[in-house]
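Example S7 (C-alpha cells).
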C-alpha cells in the first residue's frame, strides 16, 4: 500500500471515504434521472462492475423525486449532482440521497445555504465541493487572470470556509481540470492545506482510449503521492468503462483489495498460440472477480514459468498446447483448444478456495 495522506473520514451512506480507508470508486449515470427504469438498470450494471458510489444529475424536480424509488432498488450510496438550486438539494435530501455535490458559494443567500447545511446535518449527509477549472468564481479569475492551481485551491477554501462557519465538517473536495498538470498541481497543493478527503478526477478527459490515458496519467501521479480518497474516471463512454479503468488503476498501485489482476505478455516471434484472444477473454472473465488473485497468460516457456511463479494461476504457451501453472508449479499440459476452459476452471477453484479461507 502507498502511504496515504491523512484526512478526516467522511461517511457516505455507510461507506467511509478518507481516514485509513481504501480508495473508493465512483461513477456517474448517463441516464435522465427521472427515468427510474433506465437509471436503476445502469446503476446495477455499475455495481456489478465494482462501482461503490454513484452520482446522478438532479437538475429538476422530477429527478429529485425519482431518488426515492431509485434508492429502493440499488445497493450502493447515491449522490445528487446539483448546481445552484438549493430547493433541489433539499428535495434530494428529503428523498434519501446519501451525499450532495453542491458548491455552497453558488447557492445564493445565506439562509438558503443554512437550509441545505441544516438538512444535511440532520440526516448525516456529507457535501462534496466540486471545484472546476472551467467554472471558477469571477473574483478569482479577476485576481489570477485565468484558471491556475492556486485559484482552484482558493476556490475550494472559499467554499469550505462557508461550510465551516456553519460548523459543518462532513466535506469532500474535488479540484477538477481537463489540463492534467494543472489538476495534479491543484490537488497536490490542496492536500497540503485541506484536511478533508479528496475526490480525484480529470474532467472532460475524452473518449475511452484518450480519456483512459489522460486520467491514468493525472490520477496515477496523485495516487503515487498518496493523494486521493475516492476516484471517478470521466470518459465519453459507457460509465461501466469508467469503473473498469478505475479498478485497473487502483490495482496498479496496490490500492484495491477486491480485484483480480491479469499479467500477460506483449507476444513476440516465439509465440505459437493465439495469445491475444486468450488474454482478452481471461481479462473479461476475471473482471468481476472480487478477490485479489493474480493470473498470468504468457506466450511461451521462455519467460512464462518465471512469471507464472509470481501468479496464483497461469499458462505459458507452447506449440499447439499450453503449460498450466498453479502457485508456480507446473500442474499439467493442455491442448490449445482446451486451454481457456481449463484455465477458467482453475481460476474458479482458486477463487472458491480464497473465499473459503
Ligand atoms: Fe515472447 Fe515468450 Fe516473452 Fe511472450 S513470454 S513476449 S512469447 S518471449
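Recovered sequence:
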Amino acid at each position: 500500500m502507498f502511504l496515504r495522506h491523512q484526512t478526516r473520514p467522511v461517511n457516505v451512506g455507510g461507506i467511509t471515504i478518507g481516514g485509513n480507508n481504501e480508495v473508493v470508486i465512483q461513477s456517474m449515470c448517463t441516464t435522465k434521472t427521472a427515468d427510474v427504469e433506465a437509471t436503476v438498470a445502469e446503476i446495477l450494471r455499475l455495481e456489478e462492475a465494482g462501482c461503490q458510489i454513484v452520482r446522478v444529475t438532479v437538475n429538476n424536480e422530477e429527478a429529485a423525486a425519482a431518488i426515492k424509488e431509485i434508492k429502493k432498488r440499488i445497493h450502493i450510496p447515491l449522490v445528487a449532482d446539483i448546481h445552484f438550486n438549493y430547493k433541489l438539494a433539499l428535495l434530494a435530501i428529503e428523498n434519501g440521497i446519501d451525499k450532495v455535490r453542491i458548491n455552497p458559494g453558488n447557492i445564493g443567500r445565506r439562509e438558503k445555504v443554512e437550509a441545505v447545511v441544516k438538512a444535511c446535518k440532520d440526516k448525516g449527509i456529507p457535501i462534496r465541493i466540486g471545484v472546476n477549472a472551467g467554472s471558477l468564481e469571477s473574483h478569482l479569475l479577476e485576481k489570477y487572470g485565468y484558471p491556475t492551481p492556486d485559484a482552484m485551491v482558493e476556490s475550494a477554501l472559499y467554499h469550505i470556509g462557508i461550510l465551516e462557519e456553519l460548523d459543518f465538517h462532513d466535506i469532500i473536495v474535488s479540484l477538477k481540470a481537463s489540463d492534467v498538470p494543472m489538476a495534479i498541481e491543484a490537488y497536490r497543493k490542496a492536500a497540503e492545506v485541506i484536511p478533508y478527503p479528496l475526490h480525484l478526477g480529470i474532467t472532460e478527459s475524452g473518449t475511452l482510449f484518450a480519456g483512459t490515458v489522460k486520467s491514468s496519467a493525472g490520477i496515477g501521479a496523485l495516487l503515487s503521492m498518496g493523494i486521493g480518497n475516492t476516484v471517478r474516471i470521466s470518459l465519453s463512454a459507457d460509465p461501466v468503462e469508467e469503473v473498469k479503468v478505475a479498478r485497473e488503476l487502483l490495482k496498479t498501485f496496490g490500492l484495491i483489495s477486491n480485484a483480480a489482476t491479469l499479467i500477460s505478455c506483449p507476444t513476440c516471434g516465439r509465440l505459437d498460440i493465439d495469445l491475444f484472444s486468450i488474454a482478452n477473454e481471461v481479462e473479461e472473465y476475471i473482471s468481476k472477480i472480487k478477490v485479489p488473485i493474480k493470473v498470468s497468460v504468457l506466450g511461451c516457456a521462455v519467460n512464462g514459468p518465471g512469471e507464472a511463479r509470481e501468479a496464483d494461476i497461469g499458462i505459458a504457451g507452447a506449440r499447439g498446447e499450453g503449460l498450466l501453472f498453479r502457485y508456480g508449479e507446473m500442474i499439467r499440459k493442455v491442448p490449445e483448444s482446451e486451454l481457456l476452459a481449463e484455465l477458467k476452471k482453475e481460476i474458479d477453484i482458486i477463487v472458491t478456495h480464497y473465499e473459503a479461507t
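Notes on this example. Residues 261-356 form a domain with the Sulfite Reductase Hemoprotein; domain 1 fold (CATH 3.30.413.10).
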